[in-house]
Every structure is written in C-alpha cells, then in structure tokens.
Amino acid sequence: MSSIIVLLSIAVCALLLGAGLTILLRPKSGGTDADLLARLYVLVEREAATARSDIAAQRNSMVEMERAMGGRIERMRTELAEQLGALAGGLGREQAEARAAQAEALRNLADTSAQQLASIRRAVTEQLHEAVEQQMQTSFQRVLEQFSAMQKAMGEVRAMTGQIGDLKRLFSNVKTRGGWGEAQLRAILDDVLPPGTYESNVRIGNGNDVVEFAIRMPVKSSTPPLLPVDSKFPTEAYERLLNAADEGDTAGEKAARKSLENTMRLEARKISSKYIHPPKTVEFAVLYLPTDGLYTEVARMPGLIDDLGRQFRVMVMGPALMPAMLRTIHLGYVTLALEERTETIARLLGATRQEMIKMDGVLDKLARNAQAMSFSIEEARRRTRSVSRKLRELDEPEDNASGTEESEIEFTGVDSNGTASV
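Now predict its structure.
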C-alpha cells in the first residue's frame, strides 16, 4: 500500500515539474517570471510537505494495520491449533472405535468363514467318499470284466494252441500239405480267371503224371496250348531255416537255406521233365508257393529264381504275384474276345454293303418305272384336255371339226427305254 502512495506522490511531483518547465521554456516577460518561479517553488515545497506528511500518516496506519493483522493472525493460529487438536482427538477416538468395530467384524467374518469352511469340508468329504466308493466299485467291476475277458482270452489261446498243434500235425503230412496249397491255388484261379479257362488234374504226356492245374492260353486255335501250374510247399527246410534264424545259429541257417535251395531246384526239375511238352503245353510252367514268407526266402537266394527260369523254364510264383499273372492271361482272353467280335462286325458290315448295293439297283429300277409312270400320267392329262375340247366344240360350226380331228395324237404306250411314245 505504501509503495502505491509513493508512486502517486512521484507522479504529482512530475506533473508539477512538467508545468514548471513549461513555464520556464516560455519567452521571458520581465519580472513576472521570477515571481512565477517563486510561487512554483513554494507550491512544490508545499506539495512535497503534504506528500511527506501523507506518507508518514499512511506509514503509521500501515504499521498499525500490520500490528492488528499480526494479532489477528496469531489469534487465528491459536484457534486453528485448538480446532486441529480437537479434530485430531475426535479422529483418534473415531479411529479407535472404527478399529474396534473392524476387529469385531473380522472376528465375526472369521467365525462365519470357519463355519462355512467346515460345512464345505464336510460336503466335499462326503462327495469324495461317495465318488471314491463309486470309482472303486466301477474299477472293481472293470477289473472283474477284464479278468473274465482274460480268462476267455486264455481259453481262446489254449484253443488256438490246440489248433496250431493240429495245424502242425496237418502240415506234417505231405499229402495234406499239398492239398492245402492246391485248394489255395484253386481259389485264386476261380477269383481271377473266367469259368472254363483252366482244368484240374490234367494228364500231360504219355506217362501217368498229372499236373494239378492247366490253364488254357488265349490264342486262336481249336486246341490252345496249356500252361502247367503245380503247387509245392517244402515246410521241412523252411521251418529249419526259420528256427535257425530265431536262435541266431548262422551255420544252421546257412545249411537250411542251402537245403531249401536244393529242394526248389529238385522240384523245378521234376516239373520241367513231367509237365512241359510243347506244342500241347507252352514252353514254360509255374511253380506255386502257398505263403509269401516262403516265396520271400526263395527270392532272397541270389540268382535262384533266374536259374530256375533259365535252366528248367519254371517260373516261381507266390500268393502276391500269382493274381497279377492270371490277370494278364484274363486280359488276353478279353483281347481275343474283342478280336472275334471285331471279325464278326467286319463280316456284318460286308454283308450290309452287299445288301446296300442290291438296294441301290432296286431303287434305280423303281426310279425308271416312276419316270415312265409320270410320262403316262402326263399323256392321260393331255388326252383328257383333248376330250374336253371336243366336248366344247359340239356347239361350234362343223367347219372347225376337220381341224380338230387333225390335231388328235394317238398314244401307243411306253417304249423300251421307259419313255412314253405317241
């Protein structure tokens, strides 16, 4: 506030000084200037004194106001401190009460939670007990079922063991073993080849040797050549080979493999000498092995299959390769049937061509007769017009009758070329 008053005083002084300077800068007019300056000086001094006194009074009032404000502020600080103390005490009491209420609520909540947890524990225990009992019953029932299934499976295994023993005894008999291979080969032939394309137990050659199956080859002949197919099942050498391989006996495995090779060569030699008799048969035969395992062991012997085919003209086939060869023969039958059908169609087309040539001659004669008939119809129409003219001339003079008679033309029929003549 005092700074504002000082600024106002300075501004008033500045105005007065400005006015004095304005007067001083005017042109001088004798002694009046000195008087004006003296008055101005007095006026300035008076204003300065007045400003000083005002400033001092204002300073005193400011000091008193500052003192009063300090006392008021001190009283307000005291009152505020008292209010803050009262508020702090109230807050402390309220916090203590709230803390006590919260502790009580927490105790109540803990009791309630403990009761709920106890009830949940009892419910979970009961449910777990029931679930465990049910699971135990189910598991026990499943164990009983599995045990009964195991007993049943053991019974089946015993039965299967008995059947395997019977099968071993069955395969120990050479005749029975050959019958099984023959039945399997017959089933493959029936599945692939059309009916009537093979014969069983066929006598080939002059001796009493009978081949198990003979397939008629698809060729154009009244007596097509036969393909001999014989089934062999050398189980003794094959079983020795498998037993030696399972036991890890390298020497025994080598000896069994050599024995199986010798057996295959011997059987191929028998088939070649007994069943290959061209031209009644083709120049090769088939040796059928009933199991793929046996065929695999034979195929693993280096060069054996090639040697049998080259030396004895015998092809070795297994259950996996035999249907492929039979399908090739079946395809030959299909091709032969197509060729026969093609020849039939060709003969039919030739006969149709001859009939078309004859039909062309008949149509030519019919065309000539139709042309002659057309000429005859035109001549009849002309005669009709002539008769009509004669009827119209009945009412005309008689002198025109001679001219009309001269115009008549006699129709004599059709000449040898089929054209009408007059």
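The chain has a mean pLDDT of 77.
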